[in-house]
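User: Hand in any protein.

Assistant:
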Amino acid sequence: MQRFDYIVIGSGIAGLIYAHKIAEHGTVAIITKKGRADSNTNYAQGGIACVMSSEDSYDLHVRDTLEAGAGLCKESIVRQIVQEGPERIKELIALGMSFTERTNGQSGELDLGKEGGHSKRRILHAGDITGREIERALLAATAEHPRITIFENHVAVDLITKAKLGFTTENRCLGVYVLNKVSNEVETFAASHILLASGGCGKTYLYTTNPDIATGDGVAMAYRAGVPVANMEFIQFHPTCLFHPEAKSFLISEAVRGEGAVLVNAEGKRFMDGYHPLKSLAPRDIVARAIDSEMKKTGAKCVYLDITHHKEEFLRERFPNIFETLLKLGVNMATQRIPVVPAAHYQCGGVVTDIDGRTALPGLWAVGEVACTGLHGANRLASNSLLEALVIAHRASQMVTKEPVKPCRLKIPEWERGLAHDPDELVVIYHNWHEIRQMMWDYVGIVRTTKRLRRAAARLRLLHSEVQDFYWNYTLTADLIELRNLVLVASIIVDSALARQESRGLHYTLDYPSPDEFRTPIDTILTNVG
């Protein structure tokens, strides 16, 4: 057994910020299932939304967030996060983060981008590889700390709680079972406080902008431990994922539309004018549905982003990574339209927490995409996610120090596992993985119906039973752990979607095409009581 004062599951911006701060108070283990830089943060192109200009204001940022969230944001949470943002940005810069500065402004003046749903320029960015730069700065900071140990290629299996050990009172999270992918052994990690910072669940869908690691592990583990999960029906589809046979999940940042790119059909005609006053800069849920509608009306496999009115010099400087990637694939964005389609991008729901990242299970905290704080509501405003991660990670690190570290004196049993090996196991795992993702894309996508959701729910119940049989009776692998989490999170998404009998934000159903105007919008909360 490995004992630490604090455990962090995930190595994105939320986990690394928290670990860096909390290491001043004790030993920290960061558990990450691939390399330390493999996280959704590393793939974030756009930037961090934050009020940094005299032309902007907290009230405007709050208003934009509430409008995008379709009535389901918690205004007090939104305001607190927005107001605390500038101070957290200063800390990030002090840690070594370099944001792009204006070329025609004063030295040190930040270049602020604009994205869909924002009324002002407030997106801090590092070219178009903001996430990669944040990850670089934070990994450098944590790598130097003697109290932080990073366990790469370690996959979290399940949370350890007093309830699971048979205690009927004072339930608490005690640690986590972890599969070491190198030794293929399950190890026990114990700590007084465990932080879930494991990211989202984009891989539950066939097409996604997320890396392969985004299998909803944190939500699944928390749900199995009896922690409430909310609003998982609100899966944000990014409107503009590159449509190209040689590109896998390459995102065309919303910042491209912020710099004037417009959505057009195969004939080059703009179509967003008929869907929203903000046209191509409308909130993501509206743009994604508009693209879906246009593709279905015309039978087209994609639509196009047109930014050819800008000179190549500007595009190379503003979007160096996107420009070069497209060029290698045979598309010059200065002279050619970019083929795009919507793809699953961000989960707006997750493990229910307060503004400090505290969950209903003592000892368990959650920050970042895995958590549901009330900031995003029914639809995330672009680039608010990294802001949320910065602010809540800081608040969690401050609050957790007020709860003293108490070493666990309980005897935690070793992991019980099946040892049988079946050559057909990998084939079945691969088949089930593909079936879940295809079904979620077909039945639980941008536009839904009750009939399709019920079909998905019925099939997922059977798949869940099949996966559980493999899980308990055959040799444990990383693929099997992820499949177990994937089928559970897919079921939670479907059950949440069935429970919301209205269309709101990212959840649009043909059976209830309008919001329920006769009651105050409520969260969809699911809890495993089994």
User: Anything to note?
Assistant: Residues 241-342 form a domain with the Flavocytochrome C3; Chain A, domain 1 fold (CATH 3.90.700.10). The mean pLDDT is 90. Residues 91 and 131 are 16 Å apart (CA to CA).
